[in-house]
Amino acid sequence: MATIDDVRALGSTLERSYEVYVRGRLKFRVGQIVYVAFSSDERIMEFGFPKEFREGLVGGQPDKFQLPSPSDMRFHWVRSDLAALDPGEAREFVVDAWRMVVPQKLSRAYDLAHPDGPA
After folding, report:
1. How many Å apart are CA 4 and CA 44, to the nearest integer?
2. What CATH code would you report for 4-113?
3. pLDDT of 6-57, one tens digit each?
């Protein structure tokens, strides 16, 4: 079972990433782009995810993943219950969401520094 603490430390170490609180919700940004957000009760993690694969993810594991709110459907976004994810899986989603908003050179540098993925 993943918790916000499992991914918070990672999000703070990713290059150009920083955390902010917006209306009581923790979010991680690169520049002004939010790539991970948590519900105010810290039970739900929303993260960047390619639109073209979203239906497959949600349809394949509806107990773990949900579509974003109707107003967020236009964005590359998915919701997940943190308790349904294991910590390693949650960290992988955070890194993949971060990759969507940084230059490829940063993504490649991360891969070289972390060949086994996020710790």
Report:
1. 9
2. 3.90.1150.30
3. 899 898 899 999 999 999 999 999 999 999 999 999 999 999 999 999 999 9
Residue from 1, 19, 4 nearest 98 by CA: 19
The amino acid that residue 64 corresponds to is: K
Q: Quick one: how far is CA 74 from the chain centroid?
A: 17
Q: Which residue has the tokens 């920083």?
A: 18
Side-chain half-sphere CA neighbours of 67 within 13 A: 12
What's the Cα-to-Cα distance from 60 to each of 53, 54, 73, rounded to whole Å? 11, 10, 18
Cut 0.85: pTM above it? yes
Distances (CA, A) of 115 to 63, 97, 107: 30, 18, 12
